[in-house]
Amino acid sequence: MKSRKIGGIILTILLFIAAIITIVPFVWMFISSFAPNSEIVKVTGGLFPKPSTIDNYVSIQEKFNFLRLFANSLIVAVLKTGIAIYTSAVLGYVFSKMRFRGRNLLFGIVMSTMMIPWAVTIIPQYEMFTNWGLQDTYTSLVLPGMISAFGIFLFRQSISGISDELIEAAKLDGASETRIFHSIILPMSHNTIAALAIFTFLWNWEDYLWPFLMITDEKKQLLAVGLKAFNGQYGTDYGGLFAATSLAIVPVIIVYMIFQKQFIAGIATGSGK
């Protein structure tokens, strides 16, 4: 018992240190967003800027179309997240509860795609979408993220825990596979949905390289790419960059706060399986 208590204390201390190391850069960035550039680049500057100013936030829209790019990113991220969740749930249900020849082999192939680095496929994927005439369209951003191998795995593990007898009882009552999926499987998978929603939204919200390659129209560009507007030829507007970045992480925080409990429960379910 004493060794367990000591181990718990050590683990708590390590987690606290890790949390501090993770949070401090974000806190410093947020505080620095209220400082002029002359204060930010000072080597001997303190944590709290003197004087503080909100000019960095006021001038964001003047330096680049922040609101338009913010809305573009939000629409694309929400759309890709919603589609990925639904397709992952459907395929997870298929691989978990339906019996057909080659099921395990097909699932293994899906899982093997997680081992392929994305950088390996980016050139052929870019040429394919360009040949299809999809450059400068939101379709080129949404289409690659419609299927998530990680999401399929997460839902398969979660749905495997749902009783087969419950599904059979629904079939005896005349429910179709579509009705079973929407009325039984999805409501019982809310923890997994929340976990995948957070992961997928975060990945899509901070995506930079693919939108940078596919979108050349500034009005259609996403926020992560638009932040490079603060990097000038002769210097970087750190104050404006920190202010825009601070606003950019707000949706991620909101999504996590909404789904926090379900997220932890969903990860615990997936790891337990």
TrEMBL record:
| Subcellular localization | Cell membrane
Gene3D superfamilies reported in the protein's UniProt record: MetI-like
Bilayer-spanning residue ranges: 7-31, 69-93, 105-126, 138-159, 180-203, 238-259
Q: Which InterPro entries match?
A: MetI-like, MetI-like_sf
Q: Where is the ABC transmembrane type-1 domain?
A: 70-259
Membrane topology designation: Multi-pass membrane protein
Keyword set includes Ion transport: no
SUPFAM superfamilies reported in the protein's UniProt record: MetI-like
Q: What is its main location?
A: membrane
**Pfam families membership:** BPD_transp_1
Which residues are the signal sequence here?
Answer: none
**CDD domains the record matches:** TM_PBP2 (cd06261)
**Could you tell me the keywords of this UniProt record?**
Cell membrane, Membrane, Transmembrane, Transmembrane helix, Transport
Q: Which family does it belong to?
A: Belongs to the binding-protein-dependent transport system permease family.
Q: What is this protein called?
A: Carbohydrate ABC transporter permease
Q: Which organism is it from?
A: Bifidobacterium hominis
